[in-house]
Amino acid sequence: MSDALEKAEQAAREAAVDTAAVQLALAAVELAKATAAQQQPAPQTCQHHHKPRRSAGEWLGIACAVCVGGVGVAFASLALAILGGVAAIVVLVLRDMWRDMRKGR
Description:
By secondary structure, the chain is mostly helical.
């Protein structure tokens, strides 16, 4: 029976050593978790939404549209000036013809 008693004592010692090793490993894991939590603070985010910024391609498109619009306005202004000049000439010619008809030439 002393042989069985020695085996039981030996098993109890090994279990105590194994339990201590497992407790030490768990403590190390908890320490690693705590260290990781302290090193990575939560990122601060703002509560409002930012509008997306325009890309270079969008700005280039806007610039081209403005240029084409400017050229269109220039041609429209030129057409109105020509139309005004032609209208003035027609009015002067018709007035002169009216005077000639009134005098009887």
